[in-house]
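Figure S7 source data.
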Amino acid sequence: MRLSRYFLPILKENPADAQIVSHRLMLRAGMIKQSSAGIYSWLPMGFKVLRKIENIVHEEQQRAGHIPMLMPTLQSADLWRKSGRYDAYGPEMLRINDRHDREMLYGPTNEELITDMVANFVGSYKSLPLTLYHVQWKFRDEVRPRFGVMRGREFLMKDGYNFDLTKEDALHAYNRHLVTYLRTYERMGLQAIPMRADSGPIGGDYTHEFLVLADTGESEVFYDSEITDLSFGDRAIDFDDKAACQSVMEEFTSRYARTDETHDAVAFNEVPEERRRVARGIEVGQIFYFGTEYSEKMGAMVQNEEGQRVPLHMGSHGIGVSRLLGAIIEASHDDNGIIWPEGVTPFHCGIVNLKQGDEEADAACDALYDSLTALGLDPFYDDRKERAGGKFATMDLIGLPWRITVGPRGLKNGVVEVTSRRTGESEEMSPELAIAKIAAIYEGL
Ligand code: ATP
Ligand code: MG
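Tokens for the predicted magnesium ion complex:
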């Protein structure tokens, strides 16, 4: 993409109403535009990152055998009356009447819809195990929408639902989700720590929230610092292997890590003092096993091997897709702007032409652009007639991890400059080597 043909409405001034850095930077970098409280338009640059995050989520869900689908945003109130949640949900639910005065709602989540669907179509244990998911917009009329996309009213969520014959199978689904989430967040350059969370009125130990440590996080968290040494990496795992998934679960959840809702001062004190940490975190996901409660209410029953009709064991598992943009920026920025991890960057690298209009510099930039594109890479070429300082500032603000700078002086010596956004370090090399270097960085991503 050439900047001159793109739509990148960068703000020069710091927006006064944005309290945290990610919100500020998303507005300044022309990624989002508020349309009303907690509701945003995703401008091209923001939309690109949103799609990348969504793609990673899809890839990792499908790697585990979870099946994508799409349910509507608008739901009928009747379904929610069946589960008993229509009244219980309160003012966070946006309620709408259609022209026939039928009560509808904009879904805050989808347990009712999917359980009803499974109740309709699944009658035998032979159809199990089954995990369905979608990535769809949700609406929650939050009392205090704030921090940009972090706490919106309309937001994009991946929500997945497992349906199993037994508790044991459902707990395998739970572990499988934990494993997929670990890899999902790491691919986005994030460390998200599974922490024991509050299961609410349903009870049980089977819920974890995934938290990204950040001073601006809304949750207070308590953990053993050893947990931050763990990483899932690119290990291969057989998702059908119960023991393998359970062992990852144990590895990542055996140390103390809890949100304030489940914090236990006595247990925390057993962690050696030098490893005890109290910090803040951003909730980017949650997994939950809740047994047969919804299945019983919504009539999701199957015949087991003995021919008896039994309710399905269920869990639901969410990822805050749009919130993740904010979380990634909170975790990865500096005074000059965003620093995108390679896994989610909107463009793979920037090209800065120091002397737009200079025949040789223009030709070299065009050649770089074409070669990178031919390799399947997505460069962002600042081809404006602007001074170098302004171009650098724009590149730093939008946060592409790599920049290739092209100018007449370097070209005389046959070199361009490759700069890392993260370290600020620059290296001179031939255009061919620069292309090879960028291609190597993104190989396999
Ligand atoms: P919170 O405690 O932050 O309100 P929640 O626990 O109610 O979130 P879940 O029902 O667990 O949310 O939803 C799954 C994920 O969706 C959350 O982990 C979070 O990342 C994201 N999410 C929830 N509410 C919002 C929101 N208002 N704006 C953006 N993302 C959200
Ligand atoms: Mg939650």
